[in-house]
Amino acid sequence: MMRKIKNTLLFLLVLAQLLLISCEPKDKFEWNAAWSAPKFYGNGGPFVEFFYQGKSIAGASANIGADPGWGTTSGGYAGGDIFKSVPDSVFVKWICAIDGYRYEGGSKLPREMMVELFKNGWNSKGEKGNYTQIIAGFAPGGNVAVWMSGQGNNKEIINFKAKNKGIWRESEEAEKIEKDILSSEKFINSEVNIYHYLHGVPYSAWEKGDKQYKYDLGFSSEEDYKYSITYYSKDGTVYFLDSTPYFLKWSNRFIGYPKNPNSSHLLKLPVQMDLIWHSYDNESRWFEGNVLLPQNLQATFEKGHYDRMIVTIPKDTGGDFVDGVIYFVNKQKQDQVMRFRLGRFDDKQKKLLSPKYILPKGFVVPKWEGRIPLYKPTDLEYWQEE
């Protein structure tokens, strides 16, 4: 009797699950709304809302802004059911930190394409996964991009321009506080302000798109030291490279790469690389620097038809800095892109023993195009390639 009751309960449970699955609309999927902003080009009060047939189905917002990187999500409030319809439109609004304008607008979404992407998921380097987020990115000039994303694999589905709603006005007291902060020595010499000074506002990177190329990256030194590279593209996308996958032995740094780069390895070109190199010879020695790439890098890369970019540092010779060279490489040649120098961090003095910023030869500081004035850094030390 007990066995019969258990079987009946099991049957009812399975039936309930089947009914639940059958009642679930085929075009509903498990996804969340999110927002994004380019690295070093943040925003205030970001808000995104997705709709289907005029009804709000999900959204995300934040009280303060952030700059996690173009296409990368940032924390904030997100709302909506677990399983949601695929949206057919989007609405956004935010305040741009570069020019102080309020932007607001919306767009239709390619819903049929998005349904197929949700059904089929993504396939990268032999790995498969599902799309679990729809991200709206807000950039200077009112530029908006929308991606479907899953485990860091982004697929841009649309971009559009939001309308300029005029200058955002706060109370006189709040505006005075903001002005005092932006003109303070601490902010003037901050990483954000220095980045703005050295790179300007690349509006065209968001209006026209920052092109992706089929190439690989590599790092090589004479011994297997630890390193990390954070590299920023023109549109504020951030890439992180760690020690293992990209390390090349010194003896075959120019020949030990695939005949063809991975077909799914599409990357944007860097405008700056923040390098850290950790030597373990005799004692732990730490070197670092922020390397700006030549401003004609894209033209050089396209003209040379290269397969790979390699960052090389020969070895730690015991001095206060190490020198390195960046190359573009293909099967026929290796061409020098630029030389650079990383300073050693002195634990006792708590500072680098060579300037943190490294400029290529011929570098020209771009004209500032943001509406909010830019103050020239007063404490910017740099080493420049001759």
Please describe the topology of this protein.
Blueprint lengths: L1 H22 L4 E3 L1 E5 L6 E10 L2 E7 L15 E4 L2 E3 L3 E8 L4 E8 L2 H10 L1 E3 L2 E3 L3 E7 L3 E8 L2 E9 L1 E5 L4 H11 L2 H4 L2 H9 L3 H5 L4 E3 L1 E6 L4 E8 L4 E4 L5 E3 L16 E3 L1 E10 L5 E8 L4 H8 L3 E6 L7 E9 L4 E13 L4 E2 L4 E3 L22 E3 L2
Parallel strand pairs: 2-11, 16-19, 16-23, 22-27, 27-28
Antiparallel strand pairs: 1-6, 3-4, 3-7, 4-5, 7-8, 8-14, 9-10, 11-12, 12-13, 15-20, 17-18, 17-21, 21-22, 22-25, 23-24, 24-25, 25-26
What does this molecule look like?
The chain has two domains: 137 residues, no CATH class; 200 residues, no CATH class. The longest helix has 22 residues. It is globular and about 65 Å long. The protein has seven helices and 28 strands. It is α+β, with helices and mostly antiparallel strands and 386 residues long. Strands 16, 17, 18, 19, 21, 22, 23, 24, 25, 26, 27 and 28 form a twelve-stranded mixed beta sheet that branches. A six-stranded antiparallel beta sheet has the order 5-4-3-7-8-14, with no helix packed on it. A four-stranded mixed beta sheet has the order 2-11-12-13.
